[in-house]
Amino acid sequence: MNAPSSKKSSSERRKRNAVIAIFALVGSTLLLFADVAPRRILHIADYEHNFEHNVVPWLRPVTDNDTPVYWHIPKSGGTSMKLYYSCMGLATASEVGVDGHDKDETIEVLEKWHGIKNINVDTTTKEGLIRAGKLGLAESGLADVVFTSYPSEA
Questions:
Q1: Mean pLDDT lowest for which of 20-29, 75-84, 137-146?
Q2: Theoretical Cys-Cys bridge with 135: which of 40, 85, 107, 141, CB 3.0 to 4.6 Å?
Q3: Predicted confidence (pLDDT) per residue in 35-47, tens digit
Q4: For residue 135, pLDDT beyond 90
Q5: Average pLDDT value for the chain
Q6: What share of the chain is helix, strand, coil (3-state, %, to 5)?
Q7: How far apart are CA 32 and CA 22, in angstroms?
Q8: DSSP string of 101-127, one letter each residue
Q9: How far is residue 30 CA from its own chain's centroid?
Q10: Between β-strands 92-94 and 109-113, what pairing exists: parallel, antiparallel or unpaired?
């Protein structure tokens, strides 16, 4: 188990979170209201409650407690973004880190390949998001970015 680096300064963390937020916004803005798989329009009312309680206003400054969530819309470049953030040395939460760790009882950062860090949860399924919530993923501060196709459940 590799412990997270707690020596990041507040300004470094804020800058990193701002960059992640910008890439996430640019990467998904064009498809924000389109559900690619069934080719239907999403209704914002379906997400209104969760957005109201889980999404911060754009004008609010980024804090150290914020965990960026990347809305991964299939076939829109999300897999490339996972690789990009991993290559930047950021700890990512997606389906990669759960391989062989789906029964772990604590949340942790796994370093598998040449410095690539993954969290031992699967945030690409609703069940995995529930498990991540029970393990305290957001509160742990271990994930630099969380990838999911289910933003209303995140």
A1: 20-29
A2: 107
A3: 444 444 455 555 5
A4: yes
A5: 75
A6: 35, 20, 45
A7: 14
A8: TTT-SS--EEEEETTEEEEEEETTSHH
A9: 19
A10: unpaired
Taking alpha carbons only, the member of 69, 140, 76, 73 closest to residue 104 is: 140
Q: Dihedral (C-alpha) 25, 28, 33, 37: value to the nearest 10 degrees?
A: -160
- Residue among 89, 84, 83 at smallest CA distance from 12: 89
- Strands (E) located in the chain: 34-35, 40-41, 69-71, 92-94, 109-113, 116-122, 145-148
Quick check: 115 and 91 in contact, CB under 8 A? no
Please write down the long-range contacts of 13-18, taking CB distance under 8 Å and 24 or more positions apart.
13/64, 14/61, 14/62, 14/63, 14/64, 16/90, 16/144, 17/62, 17/66, 17/68, 18/62
C-beta of residue 105 within 8 angstroms of C-beta of residue 28: no
Q: Report CA Rg, the chain.
A: 15
Cα separation, 20 vs 67, in Å, equals 10
The β-bridge partners of 92 are: 118, 145
Output the pLDDT for position 33: 45
